[in-house]
Amino acid sequence: MKPRLSTKYIPLLATGAVLLALYVAGGLLFPKFFSLRVAVNLFGDNAFLGIAAVGATFVILSGGIDLSVGSVVAFTSILIATALGEWHLQPATAITLSLLAGASLGALMGCLIQVFELPPFLVTLAGMFLVRGLGFVVRAESLGIEHPFFVEKVNEALAIPLNAKVSLPFTATCYVVIFLLAMIVAHYTKFGRTIYALGGDEASARLLGLPVARTKVLIYTLSGFCSALAGVVYTFYTQSGNPASCVGLELDAIAAVVIGGTLLSGGVGFMAGTLMGVLILGLIQTLITFQGNLNTWWTKIVVGLLVLVFILLQSVISFISGRLSTAKK
Q1: Per the domain annotation, does 3 fall within a domain?
Q2: In 3-state terms, what secondary structure has residue 117?
Q3: Is 238 inside a domain boundary?
Q4: Is the pLDDT of residue 101 over 90?
């Protein structure tokens, strides 16, 4: 008897097929698309989005949602820029302060969702407005970062040379490390297994004696931490802080997670899928840049179509799985 492919792997395989098709199409259309520089830039330019998407994956796997991601990234960037430029703090202190602020916000939202049984959509929506406003309280305008650590150390000393002309930027290294850690946590730890159980059926998870309350709070704490870390990487990338930046980044992160094959209802998904989802978003933007005569808003149009396709695919898979379960009974 031939082994059957589990339905949970179908969205992941579809994501891989889309990623491969886009990459091959780019190579066939543009001579230098297969160059090492393009591949490195794909990771470096999308590193902060990728890290934010890691946090969003944990939340969506649990059956929740976090709309505060973009605001936390923007708040973190202006907090670090102000701490370095006006408060004269050391980079390690400024970065630690921003990560603690992000994790604290996530923990607060997680507690509100768990203790008062409030909808994650509304709680994180409130968090989105709150943190965006706090960013403008810290500083109402953008501020460049001139500290040597950000200007020289990050861009030069911490870059990994790949050949005589191309180096792997520190932002890309941060993303790869965070992705590997997240994959281990999601797929090889008790905490990760509890997240999947929580997203699959919260009531059943409670009956099994799993620490549902603690896990839910930790999930949003982790999401807040990842958003703040994405903000740190964003300051590495832009060398500045801006309280008005990253509007809609949370939607890009959710889109990457959905395109990566994670079910919006929770319980099914893979970190590798999210990585591919982020790369697909980056490839679409890169293809439009190579084309040269297309408006950048085509990126949003294509991403919107892909999200719709993958949501329909998820619905079809859920329907088929339900029919198969009924037939077995």
Answers
A1: no
A2: coil
A3: yes
A4: yes
- pTM, rounded to two decimals: 0.94
Cα–Cα distances (Å) from 201 to 61, 180, 211, 261, in that order, read 11, 27, 13, 19
Assigned token pair, 83: 């701490």
Q: How far is CA 52 from CA 1, 91, 131, 222, 252, in A?
A: 43, 21, 16, 10, 9
Terminal Cα distance for the chain, rounded: 21
Q: Is 222 a domain residue? A: yes
- On the CB side of 108, CA atoms within 13 Å amount to 14
**pLDDT, tens only, 200-232:** 999 999 999 999 999 999 999 999 999 999 999
Q: Where residue 95 sits, what CATH number does that domain have?
A: 1.10.3470
The residue range of the domain holding 90 is 13-319
Contact by Cβ (8 Å): 114, 120: no
The structural domain count of the chain equals 1
Please, what is the Cα angle at 314 between 323 and 120, to 5 degrees?
Answer: 115
Confidence check: pLDDT of 62 > 80: yes
Check: CB of residue 194 under 8 Å from CB of residue 215.
yes
